[in-house]
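[audit] Reproducing an earlier prediction to check determinism. Same input, same settings, fresh worker. If the tokens differ from the archived copy the diff job will pick it up downstream; this log only records the rerun itself.
[audit] input (395 residues):
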Amino acid sequence: MKSSFLKSTVALVTCGLLAFGAAHAYADQQKLPSGTSYDQIGQKIENYYQEHEKTSAGLATTVFDKDGNTLYQKNFGYTDKEKKLAVDDKSVFEWGSTTKITVWVSVMQLWEEGKIDLKTDIREYLPQNLLKNLKYDKPITMLDLMNHQAGFEDYPLYIGSDKDLGALMKKTPSQIYEPGTVTSYSNYGTALAGYIVERISGQSFADYVHEHIFQPLGMKHTALKPDLSDNVFVQKQREKEKTYDTNGDLLKGDQPFVLGEYPAGRATGTFADIKKFAQALLQKEKLFKRAETWENFYSASHTYPGTDIPVNAHGLWVTEFENTRTFGHGGNSPGFTTSLLLDLKSGIGSVVTVNQRNEFHFALSMPDLIYGKKKKPQRQLKRTFKLVLPRSAYL
């Protein structure tokens, strides 16, 4: 009996060691688009952080796959450097314009239900005479808003305004380009799309997103309203935190603030929540009911002239790397920078959130460790494609 027990124990331990060894070898063999193996990406990120630590403040980052596995995740630095309050799981980060993805997901949900046509004149969904400053007769469609091709002039956001979204939309920026001709990044255009979601759904945009995006994904610690009042935990947590400039120096006077056109860039929440959102997008789960909707969402809605290279996919910006391409959105707020990228080909996704304004080391450059070097635009594409970026803080 004793001998049999010992033999069984040895067999179990041996099998366990073999399984562990096989799993480790498998992880070592699996490569990210950059060529880095799964089990080495963590060390590369930590080495990169150490290189730029002197000018850093606080950040959180993760790399995950389409099967729900987290390849790497870690918090770095402080939410308050002066008080040495470390970034932890309760810390909240502003998404900036990464918030815009919630607008485009909402629009695609309504499209899936047959409640909106992406190619129809958006005035069919708006109050009469809302758009007063249109220079061109060519209609603006929802696709134009998604592609940032409605032709609107750069428009300052209403920081400090507590008016409802519909009231803010009445002050229309000038239309300086014909719809569908120039990619002119527009916060107003995205907020207008959020207002159309309100008009069609009969709910405020914040209520719609909570019901149809945040709640299904279990995102219990994310706020969206102009003053973050839709989530008291987030509102109080944000008041405790400090933000910094690109050199890691304290910014003053950035909190609290109210953002009237909140669909364009107000989402704020824990890192765990934005990760849930990114994972759902990569895994193609819960947000849409039909595979057709996912396929359409990730298909090119605008390409570089004369090519099939996508610029935009229904509101998601496409970045070309040497070995792959990603879909996603970055974000800047007065004190935060965010990057959310999804590689559908390799099934890899990443999120970086930083409590520094216009930060580029971690949010812009560090993803290259995952996806490889970015492709340089061809000269002919530079000549034929015009992109107009805004002067305002949110991107």
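[audit] rerun output stored. Observation attached for the diff report: DSSP finds 13 helices and 14 strands in the chain.
[audit] end
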